[in-house]
Amino acid sequence: MAKYVHGYTEREAGRLQDQADTLERLLHHDTRYAPGSMVLEAGCGIGSQTVTLARQSPGAQIFAVDISADSLIVAREAVAAAALNNVHFQAANIYNLPLTAKSFDHIFICFVLEHLTDPLAALRCLRPLLKAGGTITVIEGDHGSFYCHPHSDAAVAAVNCLVEVQRRLGGNALIGRQLYPLLDRAGYRQVDVSPRMVYVDSSKPALVDGFSKKTFIAMVQGVRRAALEMGLIDEVRWDKGISDLFQAAGQDGTFCYTFFKGYGLV
């Protein structure tokens, strides 16, 4: 697994929760599992997506695994605070899950592949865990899909710093565009990928705050130190880029970003 580019800080935990809350309808309005279903969430992190999964499919049993024991503590607290009783947690490595073959009806994986050094291998490791006719759902972003108004070369440079820092740490911030070939090469059938675009202007204040500022700009800001230390950008241009991103989140600005949601069968 690559190093988690955003870090395991309290601030990052807050950003992840803001992201989950803001994007719930866009990403998960069609994520529901039938009562009695056995669902594996691979790479649950602090449980930001787990709560949504469990709440939208109260009759399903959610088995959430993650490599980080600290993240699982936070995830358990989030599920308990939501008064959900259909989630079971386990610490495990996605490349070597101690789970029985053909024991799940569905697998769900969200914002995980971008942080893996070998996402194809991970998808192949997950496939034997599905029952015949079972499904996998994968959601990833793609930072290359971002654009804003007013256009700013400095803002683009700051975003590209995040892409490059993540690449150097072994991840891939552009993985959204690769979901179809990854799922297809991993052996899943009837693969279908759909774009989920976020468009933000000042008439959508909840998205301005929840996505533009608290999700996207906060995510870019999180790699400031690494970007400067790696010599990817100088401090003046970085500060200009962040300032311009906030300008695009202002009264006369717009943001646009695309997530990708893929499905496959076994």
Molecular structure report:
Strands 1, 2, 3, 4, 5, 6, 7 and 8 form an eight-stranded mixed beta sheet that branches. The longest helix has 19 residues. The protein has 266 residues and is an alpha/beta fold. It has one domain: Rossmann fold, CATH 3.40.50.150. It is globular. The chain contains nine helices and eight strands.
Which labels suit this protein?
about 270 residues; globular; alpha/beta; 8-stranded mixed beta sheet; 9 helices; Rossmann fold
Distance between the termini: 25 Å
Total beta-strand segments: 8
CATH architecture: 3-Layer(aba) Sandwich
Average of the residue pLDDT scores: 93
Report low-confidence residues grouped into runs of 5 or more.
none
Number of helical elements: 9
Overall tally of structural domains: 1
- Shape verdict: globular
Helix percentage range: 40-55%
Query: What structural class results from the helix and strand content?
Result: alpha/beta
SSE pattern? HEHEHEEHEEHHEHHHE
CATH topology: Rossmann fold
The CATH homologous superfamily is termed Vaccinia Virus protein VP39
Sheet of most strands = 8 strands, mixed
CA radius of gyration: 18 Å
TL;DR?
The chain is α/β, with parallel strands linked by helices and 266 residues long. Helices cover 41% and strands 24% of the residues.
Chain-wise SSE layout:
Layout: H1 10-28, E1 38-42, H2 48-56, E2 61-66, H3 69-81, E3 87-91, E4 104-110, H4 119-126, E5 130-141, E6 147-149, H5 153-168, H6 179-185, E7 189-201, H7 205-221, H8 224-229, H9 235-248, E8 254-265
Helix pairs in contact: 1-2, 1-7, 5-9
